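STRUCTURE:
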């Protein structure tokens, strides 16, 4: 997903009054199915601007895969990495009940009010964990965001579950706390 689209989704509650998932529920409650009809419905009945209505509709119609199917596809051929992903999710769920776990085609976005982390199986032997930690200095382990671009400020490469240690949990918690 492009950083522009991520930003649009991030700003959606402020600009439209609802999150993307809330707009999906609105569209689930209509009998309309065509793209143009759904855009017109959002604009006319809910006062959503054309840009947001088009984006919501496009994402709604593209969401055919369930989250489980998306995650399963991400780890096909990389099954040894799945326990690392599961442990990260288990860890962040302890931080609060306001966490949204949003699987995409190639990654899993972890959000609060804003995205704070991104889990991506980068190779058959490595997960890249992207973190939003504005102002945190780079280290040998806490690297620049690399392939995440502006979606994250930092990246940690993980190859085994034991790397989800006290230091990594501290960074995850800090990213969570900053996502308000």
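SEQUENCE:
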């Amino acid at each position: 997903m492009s950083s522009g689209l991520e930003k649009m989704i991030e700003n959606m509650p402020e600009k439209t009054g609802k999150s993307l998932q809330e707009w999906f529920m609105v569209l689930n409650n209509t009998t309309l199915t065509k793209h143009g009809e759904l855009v017109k419905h959002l604009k006319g009945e809910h006062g959503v601007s054309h840009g947001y209505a088009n984006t919501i509709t496009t994402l709604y119609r593209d969401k055919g895969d369930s989250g489980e199917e998306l995650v399963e596809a991400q780890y096909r051929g990389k099954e040894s990495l799945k326990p690392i992903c599961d442990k990260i999710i288990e860890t962040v769920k302890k931080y609060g009940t306001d966490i949204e776990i949003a699987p995409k085609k190639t990654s899993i976005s972890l959000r609060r009010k804003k995205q704070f982390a991104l889990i991506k199986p980068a190779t058959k032997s490595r997960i890249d964990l992207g973190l939003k930690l504005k102002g945190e200095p780079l280290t040998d382990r806490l690297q620049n965001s690399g392939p995440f671009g502006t979606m994250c400020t930092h990246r940690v490469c993980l190859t085994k579950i034991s790397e989800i240690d006290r230091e990594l949990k501290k960074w995850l918690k800090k990213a969570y706390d900053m996502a308000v």
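REMARK: The chain has two domains: 3-62, 68-178.
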